[in-house]
Amino acid sequence: MTEQVMADNDTMTGDKESGTETKTPAREEPQAAPAADDPAALAAELEKARAELAENRERLLRVAAEAENTRRRAEQDAATARKFALERFATELLPVRDSLERARAVDRDTAGQALEALFAGVDLTLQLMDSVLEKFAITAIDPAGARFNPDQHQAMSMVESEDVPANHVVEVVQKGFLLNDRLLRPALVVVAKSKS
């Protein structure tokens, strides 16, 4: 019967007037599954299917791991962006605080009653500003007397000192600040050096 179908598929086309005919090839039949009684062929096909399954499973695991890594990286980037979003704001705000602190450092003994009220206002303003900075995890670095730390301090000069050991901070010219334990601005310091 299959010979009949193949013969029907091989059709003759042609031009009746010119007498030429062309033969159209028959469509290929799909490959038949191996015979059930051929165990070697079945075993080979099973092994091939298992190999494909293992390869596809490995690909799926790799894609899932890459997606998870991408998700984690995105979460970390977003957390870092949120954590340090205030950096520019804080950097701009610190000089204002420095000016207030310098105003407060004026010798009060020589000031009159009017200036005393001004100093009280400056003190309150500084306290308020410090509490705002603290809310946003901005902490001051005030290393007076501490060992010089180049990661957090910037030496402005070195002086000989009998009271402070070498490589320790003698004077803090300007406080430094940290934002979430990351350096926002180093402390400007004068460092003690050993006597020559």
TrEMBL record:
Q: Does the keyword Chaperone apply?
A: yes
Question: Which InterPro entries does the entry mention?
Answer: GrpE, GrpE_CC, GrpE_head
The GO biological-process annotations, alphabetized, read as: protein folding
Ranges annotated as biased composition (Basic and acidic residues): 13-30
Annotated region Disordered: where? 1-42
| Coiled coil location | 43-77
State where it is primarily located.
cytoplasm
**A single GO molecular function term of this UniProt record:** protein homodimerization activity
Alphabetically sorted, this entry's keywords are: Chaperone, Coiled coil, Cytoplasm, Stress response
Give one Pfam hit by family name. GrpE
Report one GO cellular component: cytosol
List, as start-end ranges, the regions of compositional bias called Low complexity.
31-42
Protein's UniProt keywords contain ATP-binding: no
What is its subcellular localisation? Cytoplasm
Reported function:
Participates actively in the response to hyperosmotic and heat shock by preventing the aggregation of stress-denatured proteins, in association with DnaK and GrpE. It is the nucleotide exchange factor for DnaK and may function as a thermosensor. Unfolded proteins bind initially to DnaJ; upon interaction with the DnaJ-bound protein, DnaK hydrolyzes its bound ATP, resulting in the formation of a stable complex. GrpE releases ADP from DnaK; ATP binding to DnaK triggers the release of the substrate protein, thus completing the reaction cycle.
Write down the HAMAP family for this protein, in alphabetical order.
Answer: GrpE
Q: Could you tell me which NCBIfam families the record lists for this protein? A: PRK14139.1 (NF010737), PRK14150.1 (NF010748)
- Please give the subunit comment from the record: Homodimer.
Its family remark reads: Belongs to the GrpE family.
Could you tell me what this protein is called? Protein GrpE
